[in-house]
Amino acid sequence: MSQALRDLFADLPYLLGGHLLLSLSAVLIGVLISVPFGALATRHDRLRGPLLTVAGLIQTIPGLALLALMVPLLGGTIGFLPAFLALTLYSVLPMVRNTVTGIMDVDPAVTEAARGMGMTSRQTLLGVELPLAAPVIIAGIRTATVWVVGMATLATPVGAPSLGQYIFLGLQTRNWTAVIFGCVFSAILAVVLDQLIRALEISATTRNKRMGILTLSALALVAIGGIAPFVAERFGERPTGGARAGDLDASGAPVGLSSARTVSIGSKGFTEQYILSAYLESELRAEGADVSARPNMGSTILFDALRSDTVDVCVDYTGTIWATLMKRAEPIGRSEMLIEVAHYLKKEHGVICVGPLGFENAYALAMRKDRAAELGIRSIADLARHAEGLTIGGDPEVFGRSEWKRVRAAYGLQAARTRGMDSTFMYDAVRDGQVDVITAYSTDGRIAAYDLLVLKDPKQAFPPYDAILLVAPGASKLPGLLDALRPLVNRISNTAMREANRLVDLEGKAPAVAADSLRAKR
Amino acid sequence: MLDLSHVRKSYDGGLTHAVKDVSFAAEPGELIVLLGGSGCGKTTTLKMINRLVEPSGGTITIDGQDILGLDPVALRRTIGYVIQGAGLFPHMTIAENVAVVPKLLGWEPARIRPRVDTLLDLVGLEPGDFAGRLPRELSGGQVQRVGVARALAAEPAIMLLDEPFGALDPVTRDSIQSEFIRIQSEVKFAAVLVTHDMTEALLMATRIVVIRDGLVAQIGTPEELLNHPADDYIETLISTPRRQAERLDALLPGGGA
Ligand SMILES: Nc1ncnc2c1ncn2[C@@H]1O[C@H](COP(=O)(O)OP(=O)(O)OP(=O)(O)O)[C@@H](O)[C@H]1O
Ligand SMILES: [Mg+2]
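^ thats the input. predicted complex w/ magnesium ion below
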């Protein structure tokens, strides 16, 4: 087995366990909601229509959107809870629908016989209708299970560990093996659960007790065996932490952080953030801290998590906070912005800005050098003359931000068409001529590798984007944490960051390897 | 003991009536047959007795008590009901089907088990062979026997039977009919049986209630109907079995002109 594959397998018990816990609890609670409500709806015509409509409406919300919406609805909570609620809601439709049709399709002669013998409505439901509707209801549970296992891969951006981590990380770092790895295991999980439920149904209809007990044991084994490593890693004693603290004691270094609680590092879903997360992880581990990573979070979700102490440490960018949180649009110098942002974060959110990491990851418009020469374009101002008929590709997030609106207005780019795509694809898209210009990140290794020209911004319409190290209000009181982080300020140059990004994006190295290159350069 | 007086039923709030005016009485040991064409209101009349259908007017009493004053669920547990097409519970074994009402009445399992065996014996099904089977593993005639056994389970004082012996071959049908009459002579419940088969009515009934368009066209013993049909419609109804009987008579040795 190759090292890359071995790395993927190393995370499997934890991610598969998280995935299983999430899916099973969502389906289980989904059943407890759907079957009683579905049954009730067969008794009350006025409930039936609205119930099926609402369940159907939930289904029309795209899965990712439903997951993302749960975060603000829960006041910024990330992780298991929002993912669990979204998946539970999602599982309701097939189960409610099948419960209703299953019960309504029971032969009326049979329900009338039940009534005629003196069964109450409740006895008829429990003793006759539900058992007879069971095959249809179970078919609904199976559908829901397969859906939920698939959708649980989307739980990664809201911070719930699942097999989706392989898919999101693979997509961002162009590691297609990881993407396929995640898909394969999620598919295997769906098929296994589906078949176990089916076996349970068959043993019930054929009244085969032995098969029923066997299937139940298998299901319990899968559930417990699958979830155990996850729970152990999440909540249990961490043998690695203890060993590391011992090492440090032996070397005589101050133990400091090791006695404190686990420090969680949050990061957004793109290459640079994976690398920085790995970088912070190894730095804090070296200081004896227990560390856990919460990767792949959406930009605003990450900040909400930090503010509410769900995440302890993360890296954000001054321009992002300036535009999306402070809602400021005016241009300002790099150091002034840094000061104002730090002040704002402390005052409004209690978030501590430890300081800049040293590099800037700015938005910049970039295009192919040969194309630029052909059209005589060197700055964004030149671009404006060709705006009509130009297509600008970029992360969908960019086009919604105030910086973009300012750039567009400042240079008169309104006529250009924008095309949202995942940032991992935009560099290839501009290289292959599928779009003319992209909203590149200035630290991306592909700018040089693909021979792209970064267009000049004479009006300084894009704000500065210094990477800054942030600590949550609660974590800032952890003894030793701020001291452990301070040495990291101003230690990563633009070139070092670009090189680290290149290692992952172009050479297919793991983020941890690129993080080591950052440490080596310090 | 069972008494229907000017009972009527409208399903559409009084515009039309499925049952317009039906009165009859049944005493223990009697078998009243409701006879009439399709859609004349037989099933509706029957279901009003166990309140699966609420009457729009008239009164039904059992032992002098108006059934509208009784709890419908409790009432139904005291009335045996054999539904059109048997209506067995497909997910329950034959024994479980027969045990439904005793269980609802809270009988001890130790009392239910021998009762089920007795009933299966009574309707001619070997308990050792049939008790554990599911309804789909039975023939049509066997299913209908189980329907009767299930209705008899809690020793009801009244039995309602809605075309219980339809769709059976003549031999089976004849044997169940005679068995039923034998059972009733032992247990002495009052029975109301719906059919549109005049031969069945004539052979089984203590009295026949002929219903037409929701109204009672004639009430009488089989002899009264055969000898004094109230009108041409009833004349036609009884003409078929009468003709068949005469023809058979002619074929039999020693009979005929
Ligand atoms: N639940 C109902 N709602 C409305 N109309 C009904 C309902 N049940 C029966 N009817 C109507 O009432 C009339 C009498 O029906 P009923 O079932 O009593 O007939 P029946 O004599 O038992 O006929 P069959 O021999 O075909 O079983 C029919 O016209 C039927 O369409
Ligand atoms: Mg009928």
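The interface with chain B takes residues 107, 109-110, 112-120, 123, 128, 131-132 of chain A (CB under 8 Å).
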